[in-house]
Amino acid sequence: MTDFETEAMSLTGADAACDLLDDLAKADRAEFKAGVKSDARDCARPIHAAAKAGAPRKSGRLAKATKLRVWKTKDRGEVGVKIEIARGDSRDDPNGAWYGPIVESGHIVGNRYVPGVHMIERAWVSQSQSAADALGQRVMSRLDGLVTKPSSESSE
C-alpha cells in the first residue's frame, strides 16, 4: 500500500451503479461520475490536512509539497484519492520537496538508521475510515437523487 511517499484508496463500482440506471440520460451519468469525483476530493480533505499537520515544520516546504490527487477511470468506473509529496524539478524548486520520501520513510546515515515521520501513513490510519464512510453516504445520496429525479428532467 505504501510506496515511500504516497497512500491511496479507490472507490470502485461507479460504472456498475450507472449500469443499474440504464434509463438515465447520458448527461445524468456524466453528472453522477463528475459528482463522485468531487465528493471524493471533499471527503479526502481531512486526510490531506492531517498529513500536512504531521509534517515537520523547519521550513514548511514539506507541508506545502504534500498534495491531494483525485482521478477517475473511464473503463473501470474507479475513483481514486492519493496523498503524495511533490518532489519538484530540482533541489531548488520551491514547489517540491525532493527529500520528502526520505523524511516520510526513514533513511540510513552512516551506520545509523533515522526513522521516518510517516505523516501520510498516520493521516490515512486516523482519517481514512471516516472519509470512506462519508464518501459512501454522499454517493448513495447522489444515486437516490438521480433515481427520484422526475423523468421529464432526466430526458432533457
What does this structure look like?
The protein is 51% helix and 19% strand. The longest helix is centred in the last third of the chain and has 29 residues, at 119-147. It has 156 residues and is an alpha+beta fold. 24% of the residues are buried. It has one domain (7-146). It contains 6 helices and 5 strands, in the order βαααββαββαα.
Question: Which short descriptors sum up this protein?
Answer:
156 residues; 3-stranded antiparallel beta sheet; two-stranded antiparallel sheet; 6 helices; elongated; disordered N terminus
Task: Give a summary of the structure in a few sentences.
The protein contains six helices and five strands, in the order E-H-H-H-E-E-H-E-E-H-H. The protein has helices spanning 14-20, 26-53, 61-65, 100-105, 119-147, 151-154, and strands at 7-12, 66-72, 78-85, 106-109, 112-115.
Element layout with pairings:
Blueprint: E1 7-12, H1 14-20, H2 26-53, H3 61-65, E2 66-72, E3 78-85, H4 100-105, E4 106-109, E5 112-115, H5 119-147, H6 151-154
Antiparallel strand pairs: 1-3, 2-3, 4-5
Count structural domains.
1
Question: What is the N-to-C succession of helices and strands?
Answer: EHHHEEHEEHH
How much helix is in the residues? 40-55%
Query: Average pLDDT value?
Result: 81
Tell me the structural class.
alpha+beta
Number of DSSP strand runs: 5
